[in-house]
Design goal:
161 residues; mainly alpha; 0% strand; elongated
């Protein structure tokens, strides 16, 4: 399952990075799909990291059940061995790669979605819904009125010709 999610995320990423510009509807769908695959990949990786020990102990208890009389008894003995330190587990690098790939797909999907919004705004020429607010106490924003050089009087030039 993690391999399939990784391959789908890789395929979506390649399509989004190509020079071919998809129509906006398809680009939005690809970005949403990349986000979905990233969340699923992260979820599977985290679930796998958290449940590795239990799933291995359950499988071992089922295999050892004929030797110990029951699955519950085999599982209890395996749990005692884990508590005593005779059996240990570690999460392999593959699980961390799955989680990192999920995060990467999620980040790529979000970036693609944001780029799509910026591209649509640039193409349609849309502006923000509300204009920027002017600073309090100003009429024209932060642009002060123009000052005349010293000694010049605009009224003196009106009838001088």
């Amino acid at each position: 399952m993690t391999l399939a999610a990784g391959l789908v995320a890789l395929g979506v990423g390649i399509v989004m990075m190509m020079r071919w510009v998809p129509p906006p509807e398809l680009a939005g769908t690809l970005a949403a799909f990349a986000i979905f695959v990233g969340v699923v990949g992260c979820g599977i990786g985290i679930y796998g990291a958290l449940t590795t020990q239990d799933s291995i102990l359950d499988a071992a208890a089922e295999k050892l059940a004929p030797s110990f009389g029951s699955t519950a008894r085999a599982r209890a003995l395996l749990d005692q061995a884990v508590d005593a330190g005779r059996i240990s587990f570690s999460v392999g690098i593959g699980v961390y790669i799955v989680i990192a790939g999920g995060v990467l797909a999620l980040a790529g999907g979000i970036a693609g979605h944001r780029r799509l919004g910026a591209d649509q705004a640039a193409l349609t020429g849309t502006l923000p819904a509300t204009p920027p607010q002017l600073p309090a106490g100003t009429v024209y924003g932060d642009v002060p009125p123009a000052r005349l050089p010293r000694g010049s009087d605009p009224q003196a030039d009106v009838g001088a010709s």
